[in-house]
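User: I'm putting together a teaching handout on how sequence relates to shape, and I'd like one worked example. Could you take PiggyBac transposable element-derived protein domain-containing protein from Fusarium xylarioides, show the sequence you're using, and then write out its predicted structure as tokens right after it?

Assistant: Happy to. First the sequence, then the structure tokens directly below it.
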Amino acid sequence: FKIWAIAEGGYFLNWLWHSPQHILTSSQLHLQFQASSADNTITLNPTQSVVVSLLNTLRKATYHVFLDNLFSSPNLFRVLREQGFAATGTLRLNSGVHCNLVELKTLDRKGRLLWHWNQLLRLPTADHLVMQFAWKDSKLMLMASTNYNGLELVQAIRHRPSTEDRQNRPLRAAFGDDPELIVAIPEFAVDYNNYMNSVDRGDQLRSYDSWSHRSRRGGWSAIAWGYLLEVIVINTYLLQLRGQSDLPKRLTVLKKWRSKLSTALIST
């Protein structure tokens, strides 16, 4: 089995257990748009349905979710927008992204895209509910968002790439002999890089000082309980580090928190 998780800054907000025998079925969601001529039924595949299910387990609030291209599609983002969630993510060629962006990405992979570095193209969906982007970094990035229009820029430090493949030529030309530049780049790209890897951060923290033995293959019960225990350790560590804590001193080293927590549990 696998675990679908939603997290913020490494803190696991919630998760769903998944096994091939019990997958989430495709969701048919009826959207209430003002355009009466539009087809108001969107069908999401089981993987995309996971995103909707996880977000609906959270406390009612306004959320902005960042997704990788396993989940992202213009249709999913329309559904999330209708339900009150903002979304930003990278797109695959078969995600339903605009055909012009597919052609540009194909040219970029072949090293035949004549774009300069940091060039941006914005294309809204036909209903103007989702903005689609093609942005030239070291490679051409295809992204979509219901939160950004692409005109928001932020100053960022970029480093000259070390590789010399054809896709990197515009980037190396922009740098010249400079090892780094401060440039204005789209805010959606900066925020995506900052917030996208929250689950990965949590998984990385879980891997530190973890079990010294392996769980046998097929031992799903032990793995499940082990996962829950690790999440408790990591979440409490992040809460005392970033939130309100009664401790006289916040513990910044995860290993010290593990030791303090285990000592307190044993002595209780």
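A couple of points you could highlight for students: The helical segments are 46-55, 74-82, 99-109, 169-175, 187-195, 198-207, 220-242, 254-267. The first strand starts at residue 2 and ends at 8.
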